[in-house]
Amino acid sequence: MKINIGDFPKDRWYHRYLFEWFGYVPKQKTQVRIDPWDTWSMDCTLAEIILPCLMQLAKTGHGSAKVELHDVPERLHGDDKVHERWDYVMTEMIYAFQHKVGEWDGDTERVFCSPRERMIFERDQVESYHRIKNGFRLFGKYYEDLWD
């Protein structure tokens, strides 16, 4: 896989006129080449790209998305907790992707096993499994809110 993403085009005064007259909108230059082996474990391939993006967004984000209350613990309910709710969602997504690419603290290798085997695991491993699944669910749900 080779990805080359150029700078986002700067907004120039004449772009407004070009859009009004011709419908022209400058676009970010991107080139993506996918090799056959990139789709072998595509979930792992994409996780390697998504994780650093999530971590940078969490560090440099300038706003917060609207998060539904049932997606966060009750301690984060309330009108004054808008940013804390988004921070929670970002943390859960990062946690899930860290486990996917193997950048976690601890031994949860056995978390990704069959449901029958999962029944014999200790409580913290099962909680970790559910947290990972929830992080991926939140990523899908708030995908369109991942911008700065």
What features would you describe in this structure?
It is built from five helices and two strands, in the order βαβαααα. The protein is mainly α. The protein folds into two domains: about 35 residues, no CATH class; about 110 residues, no CATH class. The protein has a two-stranded antiparallel ribbon. The longest helix is centred in the middle third of the chain and has 20 residues. The chain is flat, with a radius of gyration of 20 Å. The two termini are about 25 Å apart. About 5% of the residues have low confidence.
Percentage of residues in DSSP E strands: 5-15%
Task: Summarize the main sheet.
Answer: 2 strands, antiparallel
**Amino- and carboxy-terminal Cα gap:** 26 Å
What's the helical proportion of residues? 40-55%
How large is the count of helical segments? 5
- What is the total number of structural domains? 2
The total beta strand count reads 2
Described by the principal axes of the CA atoms, the overall outline is flat
Strand order of the largest sheet: 1-2
Low-pLDDT residue intervals, each spanning 5 or more residues: 107-111
Structural class determined from secondary elements:
mainly alpha
**Series of secondary-structure elements, N-terminal to C-terminal:** EHEHHHH
Mean pLDDT: 85
Radius of gyration: 20 Å
